[in-house]
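Loading example: each entry is read as two labelled lines plus one structure line.
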Amino acid sequence: MPSKDKKYSCPMSRDQVVEAYFLEHRGKLLDVAAFLDRVDRSRPSGRAGGEDYRVAALREALCLLADGRPRRVERVLKLLSDPTSRPIPKALGKAAGGAYGNASRPVGKGKKMGP
Amino acid sequence: MRYIDPHIHMVSRTTDDYRSMGQAGCVAVTEPAFWAGFDRSSAQGFYDYFRQLTEHEPRRAAAYGIRHYCWLSVNPKESEDVTFAREVMELIPGFISKPNVLGIGEIGLNKNTVNELAIFEEQVALADRLGQLILVHTPHLEDKLKGTRLIVDAIRRNANVDPERVLIDHVEEHTVKMVLDAGFWAGITLYPDSKCTPQRAADIVETYGHERLWANSAGDWGHSDPLAVPKLRMEMARRGHSLQVIERLLYENPARFLGQCPKFHLDGV
């Protein structure tokens, strides 16, 4: 449970956290790097508008990880979120893409999520 | 250690999953009505689905010492066609008194459309009229933040609904505070890729506390893990959280929320 000092709410010491999780997250970081390399090595689809909006959002999110400020997960999630507030008139598909794009994005081409 | 998985779609899981969950300490599940991965061709499809949830599935669970409860609704992915959705809603009162039905769910939004919101509000009103608990689905990925705001505002517009009787599910780091601050219960879903890992779920508990919070697997026909809840238990134990706190999150909290429905009990499990 969170300690009385909210700043240190994780029961593990900093050394323990690093010991327990470093390798796992080193591996995840390399997966992101490999994904971006894979995108570079793939043939462009020829679609107008340059880089896929999801990849562009991922690159932007990576900057947040290195800015030294707290609440990184929350800020990344917000960066990837639809910033508008009104319901849309009609759904053009059921799927979510994982990042918010402009009106020209390929709606419904996102990965099919579970329910 | 015993636990409850308060959101799992067992109609999509195998009997072996029931066995594994029972062996891992699961004593009860609650199963919200959901999207089957395709749109039903008629409301009659939901009639049969509601029979499966209220008659067949409890027997399958009981064979492994697990108590099975469910929630009834038309899900947000099939709410865009409001005529169809209203036909399904007409079926619900006929099933609501079945012994394992705990309330209305999972209702909510998917793509945050005008029609989805209209059907959501009608189902909130239905729950209010029938005196039922409410289980809410929040949208996926980029639609979650906006959808959660729309949902919180819509429920607040129905002044009769007590937020203590509403659980808003699939919260993440950017929505959990909004839900808890509004007085609702919040659910963390342990789901690969699109929701929380056990590690992030433990981080949320450490950051926001464990009051009015539960965790579930939302196991279904997609890439999901029916043993995700015991994996959160392991993660929290690994970090040094007390067994008392872990049991509070994974057993006592769901029992407290669900126990607001008099049909829910854990005697003999």
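The longest strand of chain B covers residues 101-108.
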